[in-house]
Design a protein that fits this description.
With about 140 residues, the chain is of the alpha/beta class. The protein has a single domain, classed as Glycoside hydrolase, family 3, N-terminal domain (TIM Barrel), CATH 3.20.20.300. Helix content is about 35%, strand content about 15%. The chain has 6 helices and 5 strands, in the order H-E-H-H-E-E-E-H-E-H-H.
């Protein structure tokens, strides 16, 4: 499917790195926590190297916290972004998931969430459910 999208001029985005399979919570409406350790998470990450080798251009991080690995949610975590970049050799765009999602709110204000996401290494930020005024205020703060 990814290659077909690329052939049609559409960039496929693999999501939600490192995986969303170990949580029941919907991060749109609540915080999501996966208590598995790094070894147990390897199975969730198996599609990513295959996609990267086939030319994956973009990945979206998960609004999931993996406290056995890092106290920060994946999209705010330099550890997880480095796993993607250095561990798996991914060189494309890294998206955070929508920062308006309830699962993202644990990191503080919108400005704090943006700063953490950028510091972690995401180069594409999603601000899907904010007003024009909220986005203008954020830009002024940056």
């Amino acid at each position: 499917m990814m290659l077909g999208l690329h052939d049609g001029g559409v960039t496929a985005v693999a999501k939600h790195f490192p995986g969303h399979g170990g949580v029941v919570a919907d991060s749109h409406t609540e915080g999501a926590v996966d208590d598995r350790d790094l070894d147990a998470l390897q199975e969730d990450m198996t599609p990513y190297p295959v996609l990267i080798d086939a030319g994956l251009k973009a990945v979206m991080m998960a609004h999931v916290c993996f406290p056995q690995v890092d106290p920060l949610e994946a999209g705010y975590s330099n550890f997880w972004v480095e796993q993607l970049k250095n561990g798996l050799g991914f060189g494309g765009d890294i998206y955070c998931d929508d920062l308006s999602m309830v699962g993202a709110h644990g990191a503080g204000t919108l400005l704090e969430r943006v700063q953490l996401t950028r510091e972690a290494g995401c180069n594409r930020l999603l601000l899907c459910n904010f007003s024009v005024e909220e986005k203008a205020t954020l830009l002024a703060q940056l």
